[in-house]
Design a protein that fits this description.
The protein is built from seven helices and eleven strands. The chain is of the alpha/beta class. The strands form two sheets. A nine-stranded mixed beta sheet has the order 4-3-5-2-1-6-10-11-9, sandwiched between helices. The protein has a two-stranded antiparallel sheet with strand order 7-8. Helix 1 crosses helix 2 and helix 4 packs parallel to helix 6. The longest helix is centred in the middle third of the chain and has 25 residues.
Length: about 240
């Protein structure tokens, strides 16, 4: 029995690279589409926010001599490219999808309208939210927090390349300890970084739980949805 009925899955753009230095790995697309299909087959309503860091990161624009706001818009367009790729992979799995963008581009996607997005989810379609919030200075983590709250999701599932939240970066510190459960307040006190502060604060204020888990591990997504304790759960209940 699934713990959640409606979820928002947050994927980083970097996760789509697989072993490549940039761009999109067909194998990773196939993996994510397969994992999401299994969730849909369980009757879970799935929305997705995907980053664009595999193509362009707005925060790095200054290193290219590009003005920050322009760079952020370029990053938003990168998320649309990733959204189109994920949509294609999902449809190859036989899943009905809708790509919705915060920036108007009606030739390739629907404009984001909250009530329409919810209706798509109710009809069993996977909704991919692209172009962030449509505003510069906001990350895709902030977009995930905002959209999850707007569509009344039960949880944000933040898929990463590590299996949860640790006391330190486990890739750098072999003595880092993993949290199974942690409160919003404890994360703030400890200075742990799982999302940017705007996104994290929005989740805290709206009591939106977050599960941080390793999306690259096969079956992890469906195991979470079936109630297994995978990754790290961040919630106000732990405060």
């Amino acid at each position: 029995m699934a713990n959640y009925k409606r979820v928002l899955l947050k994927l980083s753009g970097e996760s789509l690279m697989g072993g490549k230095d940039f761009g999109i790995s067909p194998k990773m697309l196939e993996h994510y589409a397969s994992e999401i299909r299994r969730a849909v087959d369980q009757g879970i309503e799935v929305a997705v926010v995907i980053g664009g860091g595999n193509i362009f990161r707005g925060l790095e624009a200054k290193d290219s001599g590009i003005e920050r706001v322009q760079g952020d818009y370029m990053g938003m367009l990168a998320t649309v490219i990733n959204g189109l790729a994920l949509q294609s992979a999902l449809e190859a799995e036989g899943i009905y999808t809708r790509l919705m963008t915060a920036l108007g581009m009606d030739k390739v996607a629907e404009p984001y309208i909250r009530r329409r997005a919810i209706r798509h989810l109710e009809k069993g379609r996977v909704v991919i939210f692209a172009a962030g919030t449509g505003n510069p200075y906001f990350t895709t983590d902030s977009a995930a927090a905002l959209r999850a709250s707007e569509i009344n999701a039960d949880v944000i599932l933040k898929g990463t390349r590590v299996d949860g939240i640790y006391t330190a970066d486990p890739e750098l510190d072999p003595n880092a300890k993993k949290f199974d459960n942690i409160s919003f307040s404890e994360i703030i006190r400890s200075g742990l970084s799982i999302m940017d502060m705007t996104a994290f604060t929005m989740c805290q204020e709206n009591a939106m739980p977050i599960v941080v888990f390793d999306i690259n591990e096969p079956d992890n997504l469906i195991r979470i949805l079936q109630g297994e304790a995978i990754g790290t759960l961040v919630s106000s209940e732990n405060d």
